């Protein structure tokens, strides 16, 4: 006897967004505020996952203010950093000082990304024209006459067919919808990977420091409440060899780079505590096909350098909402709007990604140098150089090349 195939439930919406990350949730919220009927699909059943992009930069803090969500945002437990220090050998440098920025937001907020997404979801789901389907993954693109007309999806109650005037792929750097639409990213050269792990904050700790570069190792030390979110930059593809040397050698590498973490490193008892982030740097030449648009990591995967990936994704969402809301509300085609979105957001990406590549090269070359033997005059020169660069670097890291804005009114409406 042949087993019956479940009949897919059909849902109709104006805009279907695949992916409930920062790009997808921000776009859904903004479009819903403009009156567009929106359905967001998130493949997980909740947002509580081990995100690594836990930095909320000044550009995104500005948008939170413009959305009227500052009070709600500040009620979420969070930490702040106002400078990005790096210790090179024995010399402390401060190339980024957000105190030089204009406006009220002169810091990076540090919070679990699930709290940020919960905030956006609560605001959006209060609107009748917004639907969030958790535990629902977009698996393929529906097509009609060469145009994307929605998606097929797998939900907790069975298969779904979601018909939409516009589909947005915000489903990350391994986007299934991007692949289904025949869009292939251009891969850029990357020389590093990152190992992520946590260490408890030692009783005696130095000033907040982004990273330590010495003895051939670059360590990232992001301060959080009671612990450091740690990152170790390693040559791409070298994790297998590092594991073969044993966890003891890994702990010793931490101690040699940052001696104050020597005791804390003993808390690493298993390689399961160390997560490999295979660094990608790529971008699409074409962000859209008729009926479907890619934004965020689905359009351009960013390196962890400067921590701008989440914030560039949010900027994409703001630019997309501005261009898409009018034609979607009027029932007009959105092809030209999608082209304008790519033209606006592509060039900030094209400026930032080569800078990230250059930082990869600088870190790789510096890691192989004997930085502990840096002459005093070089240390003084580096200190002066970092001081002179602070305003430029604060703007570059904090707000990027083209920060997007909403109207500053009570309802955070999009500019006309």
Please provide a written account of the structure.
It comes from Arthrobacter wenxiniae. One of its GO terms (molecular function) is FAD binding. Keywords: Oxidoreductase. Residues 12-328 form the FAD-binding domain. This is FAD-dependent oxidoreductase. The protein has 416 residues and is an alpha+beta fold. The chain folds into 2 domains: 9-188 and 280-398, 3-Layer(bba) Sandwich (FAD/NAD(P)-binding domain), CATH 3.50.50; 192-277. It contains 11 helices and 21 strands. It has helices spanning 22-33, 58-66, 70-74, 113-125, 176-180, 239-245, 247-257, 262-265, 309-330, 335-367, 376-398, and strands spanning 9-18, 38-42, 55-56, 79-81, 83-88, 91-97, 108-110, 130-134, 137-144, 147-155, 158-169, 185-187, 192-200, 211-214, 217-224, 227-235, 275-277, 282-284, 288-289, 292-294, 300-301. Strands 1, 2, 8, 9, 10, 11, 19 and 20 form an 8-stranded mixed beta sheet that branches. Helix 1 (22-33) runs parallel beside helix 4 (113-125). The longest helix has 33 residues, at 335-367. The radius of gyration is 23 Å and the shape is globular. The model has no long low-confidence stretch (mean pLDDT 87).
């Amino acid at each position: 006897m042949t087993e019956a195939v479940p009949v897919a439930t059909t849902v109709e919406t104006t805009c279907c967004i695949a992916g409930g990350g920062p790009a997808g949730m921000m776009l859904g919220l903004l479009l819903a505020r403009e009156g567009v009927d929106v359905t967001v699909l998130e493949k997980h059943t909740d947002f509580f996952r081990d995100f690594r992009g836990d930095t909320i930069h000044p550009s995104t803090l500005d948008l939170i203010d413009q959305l009227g969500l500052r009070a709600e945002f500040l009620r979420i437990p969070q930490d702040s950093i106002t400078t990005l220090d790096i210790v090179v050998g024995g010399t402390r440098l401060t190339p980024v000082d957000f105190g030089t920025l204009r406006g009220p937001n002169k810091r990076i907020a540090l919070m679990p990304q699930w709290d940020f997404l919960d905030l956006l979801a609560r605001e959006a789901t209060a609107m009748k024209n917004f639907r969030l389907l958790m535990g629902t993954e977009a698996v393929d693109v529906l097509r009609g006459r060469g145009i994307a007309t929605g998606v097929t999806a797998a939900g907790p109650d069975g298969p779904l067919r979601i018909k939409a005037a516009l589909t947005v792929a915000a489903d990350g750097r391994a986007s299934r919808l991007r692949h289904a639409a025949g869009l292939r990213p251009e891969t850029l050269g990357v020389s590093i990977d990152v190992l992520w792990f946590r260490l408890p904050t030692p009783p005696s700790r130095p000033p907040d420091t982004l990273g330590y570069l010495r003895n051939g190792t670059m360590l990232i030390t992001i301060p959080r409440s009671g612990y450091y979110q740690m990152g170790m930059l390693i040559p791409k593809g070298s994790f297998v060899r590092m594991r073969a040397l044993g966890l003891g050698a890994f702990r010793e590498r931490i101690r040699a780079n940052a001696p104050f973490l020597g005791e804390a490193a003993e808390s690493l008892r298993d390689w399961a505590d160390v997560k490999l982030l295979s660094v990608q740097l790529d971008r699409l030449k074409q962000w859209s096909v008729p009926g479907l648009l890619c934004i965020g990591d689905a359009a351009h995967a960013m390196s962890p350098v400067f921590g701008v990936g989440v914030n560039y994704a949010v900027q994409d969402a703001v630019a997309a909402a501005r261009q898409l809301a009018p034609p979607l509300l009027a029932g007009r085609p959105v092809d030209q709007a999608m082209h304008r979105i790519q033209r606006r957001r592509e060039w900030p990406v094209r400026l930032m990604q080569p800078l990230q590549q250059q930082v990869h090269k600088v870190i790789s070359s510096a890691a192989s140098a004997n930085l502990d033997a840096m002459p005093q005059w070089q240390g003084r020169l580096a200190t002066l150089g970092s001081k002179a660069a602070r305003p430029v670097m604060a703007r570059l890291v904090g707000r990027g090349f083209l920060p997007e804005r909403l109207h500053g009114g009570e309802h955070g409406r999009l500019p006309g």
